[in-house]
Design a protein that fits this description.
By secondary structure, the protein is α/β, with parallel strands linked by helices. It is 35% helix and 21% strand. It has helices at 8-11, 16-22, 39-50, 64-80, 98-110, 123-126, 129-132; strands at residues 29-32, 54-58, 86-91, 113-119, 136-139, 149-150, 154-156, 159-161, 172-173.
């Protein structure tokens, strides 16, 4: 977790998100912020450090059948996992219409899954109020020019651009 760049207000020692991850008590939540600030990376970090199964779906391309399948998979994983809820990652959650968002509500309420949605749009306006009331919104900030840099990656529109190089092959340093 110490190698995660940016979002110190959430990820420094003792900060809210880090404390939740370290205690494996991650709530259903929405990660809201501009592109390139590490929302998806943070979701994967949560799954890795909590040891929870990660189910993924993109709200832009997902069909209703895929959403139902994700919910059923989460229920199955909870049953075979000794009652531990899986993380259901919905990228660009605001693209789901109200009916699709409502389909997630019973599973969130019952704890069949922990819903983590990411969005670049303000969830206070774009997410169904009933679903939103059962989630915590974490605001991710644009990365600072002084934040640790990843070699070969330059700050760009609040995130990093990589000139086509995968992050796994980059070297981290501070500038």
């Amino acid at each position: 977790m110490d190698e995660y760049c940016g979002q110190r207000h959430l990820m420094d020692t003792g900060a809210p998100m880090r404390s939740l991850i370290e205690s494996s008590r991650v709530p259903s939540c929405i990660l809201y912020g501009p592109p390139g600030v590490g929302k998806t990376t943070l979701v994967r970090l949560i799954a890795k450090h909590t040891g929870r199964s990660l189910l993924e779906i993109n709200a832009v391309t997902a069909k209703v059948a895929e959403l139902r399948e994700l919910v059923e998979d989460a229920k199955r994983l909870k049953t075979i996992g000794g009652g531990v809820s899986a993380l259901a990652f919905v990228d660009e959650l605001y693209h789901f219409n109200s009916s699709q968002q409502n389909a997630l509500l019973p599973s969130v309420e019952k704890g069949d899954l922990i819903l983590i949605g990411t969005t670049t749009e303000n969830p206070r306006y774009e997410i169904n109020k009933t679903l939103l009331s059962r989630m915590v919104v974490f605001d991710l900030k644009p990365l600072e020019q002084t934040a640790p840099r990843v070699f070969g990656y330059e700050p760009h529109e609040g995130g990093f651009s990589n000139a086509g190089r995968p992050i796994e092959n980059a070297t981290r340093h501070t500038t």
